[in-house]
């Protein structure tokens, strides 16, 4: 039983993250998680009320990873269009390299149909704020920066979702990166 004393919430987060990254959300169950950690299933409830709460913690890690990728891309002295190309390409690469984690973030729905906790909404907002602030500064208009960011993310999310689900081919033979460049040409045609 000494191993149980060494477990903490982070062990559950890291183990679940690893299981999901490898096999997707369907690979994660309380049985699999307990076996992976070498503990009793009940130990999970020491740290979480439900699997949804654990998933929110994993999604928090993913949001921070995406925010870091975007933050490192913005403000490198490139033109707005070049910066946005880099942001889009890095986001696409992140989704491709972390497909199961990306799916968890964008496709998983908490089972209780409640609103997301305020801290999760803030983390989501923080990801978009990096780009919205950058574009607001460029346009000298905060509202336009937010709106362009919303259009960019919604469209990019749709492209990536179709791409990852192997459905983009039903619409076009073009690659997701090429389509994101078309989007950027339309959004930033005056730049």
Blueprint (SSEs and pairs):
Blueprint lengths: L1 H5 L2 H15 L6 H8 L6 H4 L3 H23 L6 H18 L1 H9 L10 H22 L2 H23 L11 H12 L4
Distinctive features:
73% helix, elongated, Tetracycline Repressor, domain 2, Arc Repressor Mutant, subunit A, 2 domains, single chain, mainly alpha, 191 residues
Number of domains: 2
CATH superfamily of the largest domain: Tetracycline Repressor, domain 2
The largest pleated sheet is described as: none
CATH topology of the largest domain: Tetracycline Repressor, domain 2
- Quaternary status: single chain
- Helix-strand makeup class: mainly alpha
- Content of β-strand: under 5%
CATH C-level class of the largest domain is Mainly Alpha
Q: What is the mean predicted local confidence, pLDDT?
A: 90
User: Could you spell the SSE succession in H and E letters?
Assistant: HHHHHHHHHH
